[in-house]
Automatic annotation (TrEMBL):
Coiled coil: none annotated. This is Transcriptional regulator. Residues 36-55 bind DNA. Pfam families: TetR_N. Keywords: DNA-binding. Residues 13-73 form the HTH tetR-type domain. GO terms for molecular function: DNA binding. It comes from Streptomyces caatingaensis.
Amino acid sequence: MSSTTGVRQAQKLRTRQALMDAALRLLEEQSLSSLGLREVTRVVGVAPAAFYRHFRDMGDLGVALVEESLGSLHVVIRRVLAGPEDSDEVTDRSVAVVAEHVRAHRAHVRFLARERHGGVRAVREAIAAELARFGDEVADALAAQEVSRGWSREDVRMLAGLYVDHLVMTASALLEAAPGEEDRIADTARRQLRLITLGRRHW
């Protein structure tokens, strides 16, 4: 690759990221279905035609944001599942990790919460597919634990779905928390996780 080609490729990647960053900022106040590409390109300072060098349409940009938003969730899930099985320590760490994730990625979490049931089908399907993939990863980790011995794959996958749904629900609640409400929400989340754990032991 020539130095000129390398510079052009780097510039293309920077412009693509700038479009995604601008869209994410604009989506703080509106849904993806109401956001026009001209609004995004105006913020970035490029011509509307330049948008199509990076994305087919706004739905395509939204799918890219889903991938970016959920990319770090792999790390979150691995941290949640690390450590002793079914312990209060794991429960406490799970809620702490989710709270940390929301604080660090508020715009991404808000985007996912709004668009999970939003008006752009491609984005809804992308979010559902990513969460299903995370559910499969959690199921693999749970199946390897001693407490899951003798469980069917279907039951392990159902349990994994409960954990993933709880993670999403807790993240959404923390995102919308009023000042001073985070501790109460975190306490409720820990109690809910302990209830899931209790049910797992006696399934």
